């Protein structure tokens, strides 16, 4: 299990943001991880969202997908403190279970971090 993301040394609990996202009727599943930002020298919360409407993922609906993401982002900003904003972005997924996908993403993120900064000890 990965530790919760920190934004400027403030813990951002992924489960809290995931539960908030699932309050929306147009989201069927969600997952949140922290991604490291070199520019801000901290982790930023990123959401992976499975929309209830699968047609949002089609190429012809890119405008609709962007509008959906902007709407969700504005909604989240109206509900949480500033340090919990999804500054790492939102990615739409067709995966039935985001949690399985996030486990894979966490492994990829760890491998990327290790390749960039050397083989470092990571505690979970």
Short structural description:
With 124 residues, the chain is an alpha+beta fold. The protein has three helices and five strands. The protein has a single domain (6-117), classed as GMP Synthetase, Chain A, domain 3 (2-Layer Sandwich).
Please render the helix and strand layout as text.
Blueprint: E1 6-7, E2 10-11, H1 14-22, E3 27-37, E4 42-51, H2 62-79, E5 90-92, H3 98-117
Q: Specify the structural class.
A: alpha+beta
pLDDT averaged residue by residue: 78
- CATH architecture level-2 label: 2-Layer Sandwich
- Fraction of residues in H or I helices: 25-40%
Give the biggest beta sheet.
Answer: 3 strands, mixed
Can you count the beta strands? 5
Distance between the termini: 6 Å
Might you state the CATH topology name?
A: GMP Synthetase, Chain A, domain 3
- Rg value: 15 Å
Q: How much beta, percentage-wise? A: 15-25%
Number of domains: 1
CATH class: Alpha Beta
Shape: globular
Description of the structure:
It is a single chain. The chain is α+β, with helices and mostly antiparallel strands and 124 residues long. The protein has a single domain (6-117), classed as ANL, C-terminal domain (GMP Synthetase, Chain A, domain 3), CATH 3.30.300. It is 38% helix and 23% strand. The protein contains 3 helices and 5 strands; from the N terminus they run ββαββαβα. It has helices at 14-22, 62-79, 98-117; strands at 6-7, 10-11, 27-37, 42-51, 90-92. The chain has a 3-stranded mixed β-sheet, with helices on both faces. A hairpin with a 4-residue loop joins strand 3 (27-37) and strand 4. The protein is globular and about 40 Å long. The termini are close together.
């Amino acid at each position: 299990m990965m530790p919760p993301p920190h934004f400027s040394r403030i813990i951002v609990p992924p489960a809290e943001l995931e539960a908030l996202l699932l309050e929306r009727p147009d989201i069927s599943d969600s997952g949140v991880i922290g991604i490291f930002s070199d520019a801000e020298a901290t982790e930023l919360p990123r959401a992976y969202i499975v929309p209830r409407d699968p047609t949002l993922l089609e190429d012809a609906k890119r405008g609709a997908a962007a509008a959906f993401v902007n709407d969700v982002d504005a909604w989240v900003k109206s509900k949480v403190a500033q340090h919990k904003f999804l500054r790492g972005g939102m990615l739409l997924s067709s995966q039935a279970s985001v949690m399985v996908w996030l486990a894979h993403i966490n492994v990829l993120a760890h491998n990327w971090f290790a390749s960039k900064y050397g083989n470092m000890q990571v505690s979970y």
